[in-house]
Amino acid sequence: MSIVTVQLGQCGNQIGFEVFDALLSDSHSSQGLCSMRENEAYQASCKERFFSEEENGVPIARAVLVDMEPKVINQTLSKAAQSGQWKYGQHACFCQKQGSGNNWAYGYSVHGPRHEESIMNIIRKEVEKCDSFSGFFIIMSMAGGTGSGLGAFVTQNLEDQYSNSLKMNQIIWPYGTGEVIVQNYNSILTLSHLYRSSDALLLHENDAIHKICAKLMNIKQISFSDINQVLAHQLGSVFQPTYSAESSFHYRRNPLGIDRHVWPPLSGLPPLSKMSLNKDLHFNTSIANLVILRGKDVQSADVEGFKDPALYTSWLKPVNAFNVWKTQRAFSKYEKSAVLVSNSQFLVKPLDMIVGKAWNMFASKAYIHQYTKFGIEEEDFLDSFTSLEQVVASYCNL
Amino acid sequence: MTQSVVVQVGQCGNQIGCCFWDLALREHAAVNQAVLIDMEEGVVNEILQGPLRDVFDTKQLITDISGSGNNWAVGHKVFGSLYQDQILEKFRKSAEHCDCLQCFFIIHSMGGGTGSGLGTFLLKVLEDEFPEVYRFVTSIYPSGEDDVITSPYNSILAMKELNEHADCVLPIDNQSLFDIISKIDLMVNSGKLGTTVKPKSLVTSSSGALKKQHKKPFDAMNNIVANLLLNLTSSARFEGSLNMDLNEISMNLVPFPQLHYLVSSLTPLYTLTDVNIPPRRLDQMFSDAFSKDHQLLRADPKHSLYLACALMVRGNVQISDLRRNIERLKPSLQFVSWNQEGWKTSLCSVPPVGHSHSLLALANNTCVKPTFMELKERFMRLYKKKAHLHHYLQVEGMEESCFTEAVSSLSALIQEYDQLDATKNMPVQDLPRLSIAM
């Protein structure tokens, strides 16, 4: 059950490297309390899922690296090669000379169509290498031009050409205070487009991970490297193999049975009753929660708290909305670890903020000429706003 | 990798340009560990074929045309039409050499004849011939005490062209550069015990540069501008954890096509020889970037309105340092209501020669308005009396309408800034959002 990863833009490529590194180094790390046979099955599964084998034994990441300028890809390739433990495929990259200038329109309308064939070809080759192909993991940021714009374009193409395969996008939510001035525009355009073509959007906020580095890990001078490693660690502990319900050791077809922030098609929801907005909320109401436990004492761990109906929307029973996966095999030298993947109202506040800021800027028409120059018109912006207001409203009504 | 072509026009432009090349080579030599020794002028061009071939185009366009007589009309109309084909040919050759040409850097002064007139003529040529390539202009604006009497005419006529044909303009005035030099001299000569300044680190120095130039009078000032250009392109040339390409500068800092004037400030101006830089010293660098002492234009951004701001950091500085300082400085700065978090940031790992880190801040701020208004006043004082006008009108193609149109263009620009300023102290209100029927 293999996953092909598509790394887009500076962010996507920098993170992608850390993810593969974390996955492989966990797969090589000690087995904790599980048996040797289990450990070997774990390692084999991880390898098959994310790597293909080379004759001389160095695993090759099942990844396609895409960027519109060469510096980051070159660095990424050489860092992987230097590790000696794994590497990227020789022909797995697509690169151009000039970036997307933080312009979603340029990434989507210029780079996309121009390089569609080449990029899709590289992806196809990678998919063909898989004995049993499960789906795509696309890593991108929302704030820039390539990850966001070209990322949205590529995801759309993947939906057209591989509609039966899972498409999961790992999206980096930028810092609230500027990395890129037009980040809110780029974000709303990205999200509204991905809504239509992606199956699942996993969101990580730079601000949140930054806090983890500062407060929980006490790192003094936090670099993007630190941030990316935390992220990779989280993703690794989600994606590494776990027992399926039948308790034989094989992996689920979908690496995630439930996805973090799924945008459900509106038609799939039962009719919503009008809820009073003054509902006394102690929790972000969830549609779905997945807990993954690894290491010591997983069988006896008490997860009853996650089945509390107060956590879930009224039209779902916890038994349908909550899942727990376990494996005795420890992750990355931690005796015990747990990760929660959640589809809940947690999203509402950040999304609402981005939409609000983008709307304010749009009202003044600032920077719009930079987008219309490349074919993204005011109507496209309005469509995006409409889509996202609907998402916010849907989640608020849970 | 992308390339930029530097276009140096006129005496001022050429002098700055030469300083720029020297420092660029010094910077790349330090990175590539090449040993470059004192060489003849001709050999410099050969060196440029080598390590810098991929980064800077080798063909410098040095227009050595003298005799514009400080007359914009002569530079623009006469030399423009006379040399257009020749210059266009040179541009085309330069472009062919480039794998991926991204940007033209035009360096010139506003107050004279050639830099101002021919320099702005070239803008139109470049726009027509290479519409997809960015045009960044570094313009030296005349100070009030400028000895060229007609500098207001030349500047205003040039401004119209900058308004219409430049993607981004970095206005610089000589007085600011001069003030920076005075500050450095004071520091170097202060004789404070225990403080010695690293010679290569002076933003004014060409120490360690490739050519041994004769000390020209404006060398120190020109080196500052040269450093500005180096820092502007550093993230495109070297690696870092958050890259910023030149096209991102325009994308993020130009919210409306006409408002493309950016105030720059550079820090540090020098490095003391003690090596350990504690975070407080690093934070000082950020504070300095927002102090008037480090600006290359006399203006007061802190008391005006920011439309957008870019921080381009070089050296061992991480994202947390950047964020900490933005949080710290934000409250004292006023941003326009629709861009409250209008920050664009970049982190380049390679510091400039002689420093462990540096910061270039580019601000799109209404504080440029007074500069333009002063210029307009000086212009009107001359124009009302029709002083020296005949020198211009006798040039073929020049009419009074050129003047009136130029002034209108500037007035319109000033009005844009006025309208923005009017919003300055208004409370920021969220606009009503789209309401969705569920």
Automatic annotation (TrEMBL), chain A:
Q: What does the protein in this record do?
A: Acts as a positive regulator of hedgehog signaling and regulates ciliary function.
Per the record, what is one GO cellular component?
microtubule
List where in the cell it is found.
Answer: Cell projection, Cilium; Cytoplasm, Cytoskeleton, Microtubule organizing center, Centrosome, Centriole; Nucleus
Domain Tubulin/FtsZ GTPase: start-end pairs: 47-246
Q: Its family?
A: Belongs to the tubulin family.
Concerning SMART domains, the annotation shows: Tubulin
Keywords of the record, alphabetical order, are: Cell projection, Cilium biogenesis/degradation, Cytoplasm, Cytoskeleton, GTP-binding, Microtubule, Nucleotide-binding, Nucleus
Subunit (UniProt): Found in a complex with TEDC1, TEDC2, TUBE1 and TUBD1.
The protein's name in its UniProt record: Tubulin delta chain
Q: Which domain of life is it from?
A: Eukaryota
GO MF annotation terms: GTP binding; structural constituent of cytoskeleton
SUPFAM superfamilies membership: Tubulin C-terminal domain-like, Tubulin nucleotide-binding domain-like
- Entry's PROSITE patterns? TUBULIN
One Pfam family, short name: Tubulin
Q: Does the keyword Transferase apply?
A: no
Q: Name one GO biological process term.
A: cell projection organization
